[in-house]
Amino acid sequence: MKVLLLKDPKEDDCGQDPYIRELGLYGLEATLIPVLSFEFWSLPSFLEKLSHPEGYGGLIFTSPRAVEAVELCLEKDNKTEVWRKSLQEKWNAKSVYVVGNATASLVNKIGLHTEGENCGNAEKLAEYICSIVTSNQRTQMSSSLLCWTRRRKAVKGRFWNLPEAPCTPLGLRLQERHRKGMCSERSSRCEEMRLGA
Fold first, then answer.
1. Residue 6 falls within a domain, yes or no?
2. Which domain of life is it from (predicted)?
């Protein structure tokens, strides 16, 4: 039997998409068709924020796309060396929270140490952060929140006394576009990557 998977391919340690491998174990032949493409907007504005870790209490990554935005910023403006020599260490002196092991793995690849990856979703990560950060620290903390709009609500509600920074748009936007011919209902949808100032 053949199976059609409408998703982006991801390689595991074996160099194969885990869905294809798992379905293959049951005699199913899987074909992957990526249905979305992504375009980041305003990366220079984001890079400016990323270049000044002293203005933030930490980072919160809620998706692999957020990590991709960091990588693109560093590659595009040849900041990889500056990242390795200076910025990476400064960000590692702060808390770097992530949702999920896949995102944690990608954040680790850019040299950052993570916590919270076992929480599983944005709401549980927010609960985790609130459980380890005191009320005073939360009031003083201004974290960069790198997440999809749909996850923002889950996180924002947990930081009730945190300054508005975690959900203030800083100009880094992600346009999610359905690939031509794959989705007739919607031709495109915009999501904003939200970062704290």
1. yes
2. Eukaryota
Task: Strand 36-41: give its sheet, edge to edge.
Answer: 36-41, 173-178, 188-192
The answer, as to whether pTM is greater than 0.85, is: no
CATH of the domain at 109: 3.40.50.10090
| Selected residue with higher pLDDT from 104 and 138 | 104
Cα gap 91→187, rounded to integer Å: 38
Q: How many CB atoms lie within 10 A of CB 153?
A: 11
Task: Give CA–CA dist 146/156, Å, rounded.
Answer: 12
Whether 57 and 86 share a structural domain? yes
DSSP 32: E
Q: Measure the CA–CA gap between 89 and 175, rounded to whole angstroms.
A: 31
35 close to 182: Cβ distance less than 8 angstroms: yes
Q: How far apart are CA 88 and CA 91, in angstroms?
A: 5
